[in-house]
User: Fold these one by one.
Assistant:
Number 1:
Amino acid sequence: AQRVTQPEKLLSVFKGAPVELKCNYSYSGSPELFWYVQYSRQRLQLLLRHISRESIKGFTADLNKGETSFHLKKPFAQEEDSAMYYCALSSGGSNYKLTFGKGTLLTVNP
Amino acid sequence: EAQVTQNPRYLITVTGKKLTVTCSQNMNHEYMSWYRQDPGLGLRQIYYSMNVEVTDKGDVPEGYKVSRKEKRNFPLILESPSPNQTSLYFCASRRQGANGYTFGSGTRLTVV
C-alpha cells in the first residue's frame, strides 16, 4: 500500500525566512513524487515533480530514497507563498493512482 | 486551452435526490480520477478510470458511481446523496506515460 505523510498541518514563518515542508512516503516500488499547491480553495496546481528536478517559484524538492522523503524547500519565503501544499505519490505503471498527504497550510507573515 | 472542466461549480441539494457532477477533458488523456477534499483529511480518491469502459474503486467509493463511455467524459453520480457527502470534489486527468495530473476547478457540494 502507498502512503504519504505530511507531519505538519500548519506552518507559519516570517517573510524572508527559509521554509521547509516535510513529506515522507511509504511505497515498495519506485514512486513518482509530486508537490501540489492550492491557493484559497482553488484548483490544485502542480508545483514540482521529482523526475524533472526543476525549481518553480523558488521552491525545490529532492527525493531521498534512503529516508523515503521528498521535502519542499525555499530559502526566502514570500507572502504570496501562503497556501495549502500537498505532497503526492503516484505508483506509476498502468494504475497511475495518485495518493495525497493531508496537506500543510503555510502562512507567511509580513 | 488544455483543461479539465467540471460542472457545476457549486451545488446545494437535499438528501436522497440523485445528482450528477460532470467532468470533461480536452487533452485526450487516458486516465481520469475523482477526489473529494475534506478539512483535515486532504484529498481522497473516490474512483478512477484508466480508459474507456475501464473504471475501478479508489479509497472512498461508497455512495458514488462513475461511468466512462467516452474518453473525454467521466461523470460522478450520487444516486442518493447524504449529508456526509458534503465536500469539495475535484476531477483530474493524466496522459498515459506522462508526469503530473491536471485538475479541474472543483465542485462544492452541500447536501442538506
Note: The mean pLDDT of chain B is 93.
Number 2:
Amino acid sequence: EPEVTQTPSHQVTQMGQEVILRCVPISNHLYFYWYRQILGQKVEFLVSFYNNEISEKSEIFDDQFSVERPDGSNFTLKIRSTKLEDSAMYFCASGSSGGSFNEQFFGPGTRLTVL
Amino acid sequence: QKEVEQNSGPLSVPEGAIASLNCTYSDRGSQSFFWYRQYSGKSPELIMFIYSNGDKEDGRFTAQLNKASQYVSLLIRDSQPSDSATYLCAVRYTDTGRRALTFGSGTRLQVQP
C-alpha cells in the first residue's frame, strides 16, 4: 500500500541553524501538507501546497519557514533559523485531487530537537 | 477561533465492549470530519471520514455526525487491546479554498484485556 515517507526520522540542531525536512508524498497525490505536533499538544496545520505553490498557510508559518517541491517526488520544509520552540514532530501529509472530502494521509514524522 | 473539542480521557473499556468517542466543533459551516488514530510516538493514521448527517460504518468502526448539534462521534465495537491509542477528531472548515484540517487534542482510549 502506498505511503508517505519522511527523512530524517530524528533531527537534532543548534538554535539558529537551518534545517530541511524531507518528504516523499504518495505518488499520485497532488496536495501536500505540513503539520507539526509539539509534545503533548494538538496537531497543528502549517501549510498546504498545490500546483507548485502555497495554497494556504497558518500563522505559525512565518518568514522563517518555506516549502519547496524541488523535483517530481520530494516535498521539503525548510526552517531558516531554528528556535527552541520549533522543537516538535513534523508530519508531512498528502491527498489526492479526487473527491471533495480531503482525506489526508500522514507520514511517520520527523522529530526535530532544537538545542 | 475555530475549535474542535474532545475529552482527553483516558476512556477505559473492557475488551469486547463498545468504545464511544465524542467530538464537538464550533463552526456550523464545517464540511468534512475525520477520525485519526495515533499510537504513542507515531503519526496520525486515518480511520474514516464522514460528511453527511447520520451514521457511516466501516468494519468495527461507526462514525456518527449531527450537524445541527455540531457533534461527531466514533464508535468502536468489540474493542481490542490493540485499539488502545489516542483518537483524534479533525475538521475541515469550508472557507473558500481551505483544505487545512483543524485537530482536537484527542481522547486516549485504554482497552483492558
Note: Chain A touches chain B at residues 31, 33, 35, 41-45, 48, 55-56, 58, 89, 91, 95, 100-109 (CB under 8 Å).
